[in-house]
Structures are given as C-alpha cells and as structure tokens.
Amino acid sequence: xxxAVDHRSHRxxxxxxxxxxxxxxxxxxxxxxxxxxxxxLYAVGFVSGVAVPKHIDTxxxxxxxxxxxxxxxxxxxxxxxxxxxxRRGFKRVLTGHVPPLVExxxxxxxxSLVLVLLFAAWQPLPAVVWRAADPRAVAAIxxxxxxxxxxxxxxxxxxxFEGFRRKRVVLSFAGRxxxxxxxxxxxxxxxxxxxxxxxxxxxxxSAPVMTAGHFLFSGAMTTYxxxxxxxxxxxxxxxxGDQYRRYRQRVAMLLPGIF
Length: 259
Prior knowledge:
With about 260 residues, the chain is mostly helical.
C-alpha cells in the first residue's frame, strides 16, 4: 500500500503537458505585452518628435505624391491588421488551433510589429498646416500633449475595460472559471467612458507645429479611434447589458458633460 501511495504522489507532482502549455502561454503573453509597451513608448517620441532616432517629421523628403502614397499604404496596413484580426470570425478560426491567451497575445504582437514598420517607413510631408508662435501657447500645447500621453499610459497600466477579458483568459489557463463580472468604473472612467482614446486624441493633435504628415497621421488615427469606440461600445453593451447602458446614460464619451 505504501508503494502505491508513493507512486501516485510522484505522478501528481510531475508537471503535465497541459500545465507546461499554460506556463508557456502566460510567458508568451507577458513578453508580448512588454514589446507592446516598448512600442507605445516609442510612439510618444515618434508623434512628439523627441528622444527617438526617427519621428513623424524626419526622413528623406520625397515628392509629396510619393510620400502620401507610402504613408496611406502604411496606415491602410495598420487598419487592415487591426480590423481583420479583431473580427470574431478570425478569432474563432485562430482559437480553434491555439488557446485564447495565445490568440490575444498574437494579435497584440502583430499590432506592435505593424506599428514598428509604420514608424520606420513613414515619409515626412513637411508642409506646415499651423504653427504656434507665442511661447506661452507652445508651452500650453506641450503640456496638453504630455497630459494626453499620461492619460494613455495611466489608462493602459491600470486596466482599461479589456481587463475583464484578460482576467477571464488567464483564469481559463489556470483551470478556473470567472464568475459574472460586474462593471467596474475605476478612476477616470467615472468622468469619461473612454479616457484612453481621449488621451490619444490629445497626444496626436497637440502639436505646436502641425505638418501635413502629422495632420494626415492624426486625422487617420482619429477616424479609426472613433470606429473603435463604436465597436467597443457595442461589445460592452453585449457583455454588460443594462449595467453599461445605465453607465452610458450617466457618463460622457470623451468630454465631461459635453460629448
């Protein structure tokens, strides 16, 4: 009897293929989010024009038509990757072959790689759309840009509404199930529904010197952000139901008390 018990204990203590896969999946996810965070940090310099080897207004000056064609293709690639991989049909196919955590991490990794390509290949369009001349106005615009990036990183690091999805995925990897998730409204979510997107909008448009290339980038990203808001609100309504419907009636989308 003693020998049998020892044998069973040995088998219980041995790591299984499933547990190793879960650990590898979680490790992959952590590494991918580290890459994404580094990409996001580079984006600050790329848009603001500081502390990076190449930003939105640097590079060889091509004819405007050539530069515009290249930049539109880069923006189109970002939109295509972001949109196709976010579709439920694509996720359903991919999760038929890999666990959900790997699917989400792969989506984030591909987004990071496309952004890296965009940063590296972006062609400047140097024509000036507007320029702030007053030093006080320049300082105010820089402060607004900094505030926008602080909103982005603060919201990203404290969770965003995607947090409930990540929690459910990690729990499934650990062999547990998540209970019904209440709608959480931490920090700035009590003031606006989408502080992350508000931060991006402030960061993109707060430029004391707005070139045509910067204007193109900001305009395209703003359009895509509003599409993202619409899609996200649809998903949140489907997930939280009346909880989110009541929240949406009380809290503005981007500007407190206005919009």
